[in-house]
Amino acid sequence: MVTVPDWLFAYFFGAMMVATFLLGGVALLKGKRALFVIGFVSFGVTWWFGGLRLARPRSVWGQRFYGVHRRTLAAARDTPEERARARRRALVSILAFFVLYVVGSAIAGAIGISTPDL
């Protein structure tokens, strides 16, 4: 069994926390307000998605750091149809996760394996 020194774990954990909070700020600057708010509930998980994805074209980040090519890509993604499509995909993903969780829990319960609660 490999043991990790406490100081190494502390540095790694600290670096991950700093990166998470920095990406939270970047997500906010990129105009991802919903992901920023949800990040408080999800312990910063959504900040990683919001900080690494393409910014909205009218956001502070998009205006300051994007050239013509990236602004064109961002504008193409920012249409109402694309946003509705993205919301549908997210909803389907969430529903699929819960369906798989319920089915997996039922199968695990049938064969005698306990599963963690959500």
Give the structure's gist in a few sentences.
This protein has 118 residues and is an all-alpha fold. The protein has six helices and no strands.
Describe the structure in your own words.
- The chain has helices spanning 6-29, 33-41, 45-52, 60-65, 68-77, 80-111.
- The model has no long low-confidence stretch (mean pLDDT 86).
- The protein is built from six helices and no strands.
- By secondary structure, the chain is an all-alpha fold.
- Helix 1 (6-29) packs across helix 3.
- It has a domain at 1-56.
- Helix content is 75%, strand content 0%.
Which segments are poorly predicted (pLDDT under 50) over 5 or more consecutive residues?
none
Percent strand? under 5%
Shape estimate: flat
Report mean pLDDT, rounded to a whole number: 86
Q: Which short descriptors sum up this protein?
A:
about 120 residues; mainly alpha; 6 helices; about 75% helix
SSE map:
Elements: H1 6-29, H2 33-41, H3 45-52, H4 60-65, H5 68-77, H6 80-111
Helix pairs in contact: 1-2, 1-3, 2-3
